[in-house]
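Mods, move this if it's the wrong board.
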Amino acid sequence: MPKTHPRRYRIESLILEALAPIVKPALLNGNGIITLRQVLLNKDFSVATVVYSSVGEHDLKQVQKTLEDQAWRYRRQLALSLNMRKTPQLVFVYDDKGLAADKMRSFLEAIAADE
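Not the wrong board. Structure tokens:
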């Protein structure tokens, strides 16, 4: 039976809650929505992988570049808002489940329109 890590989950949740209001306003360009889905910490809590998704019209390469370029600022603001001994390095990873959901929805709408 796998061992649960409540401290890790609690810190991941805190980081996600603190990052959402910092990151989202910086990416409000276009007609799409950027959603921070999950934060995953490595074993020694030195790296936080932030999983995000996009729905709508966004240039994903530009979004990824912006996130990577601004990661140090987000980390600094995170350090100011959370009382942690060491603030983890932020790595942003795109989750394409939102894109797959858009394709599936448009496919189902096309089928419904044909009937």
